[in-house]
């Protein structure tokens, strides 16, 4: 919760003061540094109002233009272990490919964060994959890990929320648990602009049933798991 809400301080309100690239990058580094500090000290970062506003608006516009058929039922596991299980999760997803200008801008932002964290924390993050997720009323994702200790595939998880005016009655909170023994967890409201990062192997988490349409981006930074007898594909 220590991230500074820099967006609202720096984005000029009048068109007479255009936002320069320089300002954008200076602000971005403030956020990235906060994320690095929080990851270093506690293994996670919860940052309200941190997705750049224009990027958030663009992604939402693209989202509203998407047909529900572009979302597919989310599965669990990767590749051959991939399966669909409605007892675990009921959301629907749409992968970012970077083919649209908006998708490319989102991936570029995630990529700059990757570079920053690699320089600052020597994480060796190698690739990033992400999808939009749509939870309809009643949808949930039961307690799970995004990665398993011996697999070293997903190292760092990121979730970004795209829901303006999310209230306490709307449910759909992310609950981030400290470890297997933690039954209380930290509740995060899926409010527009909130960015959450956590070490994928360390933090079990769940999405409580949403009471209305809930949109988020989930993304994962991976290290390269290529070995002499196996080429590691990005997904
Ligand atoms: C996931 C996930 C959390 C959220 O997709 O793996 O945990 O709040 N999402 O959407
Ligand atoms: Mn998850």
What is this structure, in a nutshell?
By secondary structure, the chain is α+β, with helices and mostly antiparallel strands.
Can you describe this structure?
By secondary structure, the protein is an alpha+beta fold. The chain has a single domain (25-75, 85-222), classed as q2cbj1_9rhob like domain (Jelly Rolls). The chain is 26% helix and 23% strand. The chain has 4 helices and 11 strands; from the N terminus they run ααβαββαββββββββ. The chain has helices at 7-10, 21-42, 53-65, 101-121, and strands at 44-47, 72-73, 92-95, 127-135, 141-144, 154-161, 174-176, 186-188, 195-199, 205-207, 214-222. The strands form 2 sheets. Strands 1-9-6-11-4-3-2 form a 7-stranded antiparallel beta sheet, with helices on one face. It has a 4-stranded antiparallel beta sheet with strand order 5-10-7-8, with no helix packed on it. α2 (21-42) packs across α4 and α3 (53-65) crosses α4. Residues 1-23 have low confidence and may be disordered. The protein binds N-oxalylglycine and manganese (II) ion. Manganese (II) ion is lined by residues 144, 146, 205.
Features:
4 helices; seven-stranded antiparallel beta sheet; binds manganese (II) ion; binds N-oxalylglycine; four-stranded antiparallel beta sheet; 235 residues; alpha+beta; Jelly Rolls
């Amino acid at each position: 919760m220590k991230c500074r809400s820099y967006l609202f301080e720096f984005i000029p309100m009048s068109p007479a003061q255009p936002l320069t690239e320089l300002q954008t990058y200076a602000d971005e580094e403030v956020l990235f540094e906060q994320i690095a500090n929080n990851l270093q000290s506690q293994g996670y970062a919860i940052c309200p109002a941190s997705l750049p506003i224009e990027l958030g608006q663009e992604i939402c516009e693209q989202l509203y233009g998407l047909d529900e058929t572009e979302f597919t039922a989310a599965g669990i596991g990767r590749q051959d272990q991939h399966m669909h299980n409605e007892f675990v999760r009921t959301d629907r997803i749409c992968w970012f490919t970077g083919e649209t200008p908006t998708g490319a801008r989102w991936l570029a932002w995630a990529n700059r964060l990757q570079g920053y964290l690699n320089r600052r924390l020597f994480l060796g993050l190698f690739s990033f994959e992400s999808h939009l997720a749509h939870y309809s009323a009643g949808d949930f994702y039961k307690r799970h890990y995004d990665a398993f200790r011996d697999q070293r595939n997903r190292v760092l998880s990121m979730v970004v929320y795209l829901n303006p005016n999310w209230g306490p009655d709307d449910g759909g909170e992310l609950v981030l648990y400290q470890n297997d023994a933690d039954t209380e967890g930290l509740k995060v409201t899926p409010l527009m602009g909130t960015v959450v990062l956590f070490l994928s192997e360390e933090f079990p988490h769940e999405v409580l049933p949403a009471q209305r349409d809930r949109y988020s981006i989930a993304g994962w930074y991976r290290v390269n798991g290529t070995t002499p007898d196996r080429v590691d594909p990005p997904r």
